[in-house]
Amino acid sequence: MTLFFHSGATVNSDGLDLTVTLIPIEYTVTFDANGGTGVMAPVTTVGNGRYTLPACGFTREGYEFDCWQIGTHSYPPGSVITMTGDMTVRAIWRKYCTVTFNANGGTGSAEPVTVLAGTQITLPENPFTSETRNFSYWAVSSLPNVKKYPGGTFTVTQNTTVTAVWVPKVWCTLTFNMNGYGTQIPPITVEKGTIVS
Fold first, then answer.
1. 91 & 143 share domain
2. Rounded to whole angstroms, how far apart are CA atoms 56 and 82?
3. What pTM, to 2 d.p., does this model score?
4. pLDDT for res 22
């Protein structure tokens, strides 16, 4: 008489001549591209039920692979997991975001910056100029009603526009009262804050 047991089963023969055949338990790991493209074939595991997560074989335009997700837990490639049943391993992605700079009526240019979502960037000095206005601060589209200044930082979570905010230049006229002496010096018009010598 032959009986079949899973690995680790205990047999009480009670005097019977039994042959125990151990059948390894098999679990299947399937891979979910989660919006990505490519193929990763399911994997069948046997033995001690431990499995090493592979590198991601999927790609996704505009995104970078971040980690594997099983249930609510995240794991990097190379992590060893314990198989307790069939499992689906889901690819988690990080999006690339573009930060563009808006001169807002100024002149000049600034190259867009592309970074991964979650990246902290430092705001540059203002590369734009205006003949009639002075730069005041940066306005960041993802941070409404917040003033940001060159050297300040923010975390990019989406495509973002950074806009130069300007204030009008204030002009002052400097007149000279010669009080009857010498040749009259003509008035001078300068921007407020200018040092005249």
1. no
2. 19
3. 0.67
4. 65
